[in-house]
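Good morning C.,

I know you're traveling, so I'll keep this short. The sequence:
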Amino acid sequence: MPRPSRRRRVCAEPCYDSFAPCGQQGRDCVQLTVDEFEAIRLVDLEKQTHEGCAAQMGISRTTVTEIYERARFKLADCIVNGKTLQIGGGNYHLCDGTTKLCCGRRCQRAAVRPLGGNDMKIAVTYENGQIFQHFGHTEQFKVYTVENGAVVTSEVVDTNGSGHGALAGFLNGFQVDTLICGGIGGGAQMALAEAGIKLYGGVSGEADAAVQALLDGKLDYNPNVRCDHHDHHGEGHDCGSHGCGHSC
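The tokens, ready to paste straight into the viewer:
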């Protein structure tokens, strides 16, 4: 009887769970598991050796090589053949921040409040009940506490003049792990990713309805959203209506 494979240790859940060619749904879908994602992150982004990656993930070097090569083929298949990439699932567990091999960046946050699951803290850029359409200029967030897949409390909080990069730290202070917004620039997206906050951008309409749609798995969002706000001139720029989604 074959021995069961060891669960792979990963730093945290990916902040983005899908990518599509030119913001459009590809003709086919490729599933990249979370442990495959972690191997790509450690080897290609963090520039670790396969030995170092194996130590951090708690598996053998040969297993890392197998996972890594499988992941690279999937990425190539998506890029060359125009397929949609979905990230999720796999044989893994989240790092609890206690191992001496912990990367020390996001694992401690994951140990306190794991991303995803039925318990969440969701923030929405907010103005008069609607989703405000430029993340960096929002004066308020509506913050929702979700337990067992349902909203149990919500509150509107003022940003007190915090803007762009500082807003990721502001959300961290409220233990937010998920953000719904309209347009958002690349720098702010990077700050959110570093903070371990999952982004659902390119959303408009009522804030309460968007949160419920997310919980129901029906939220219409743009995984490739962007808003180059400072590249526009003139007053009254509305990120939701000036093509701030991905363009090719």
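Safe travels,
E.
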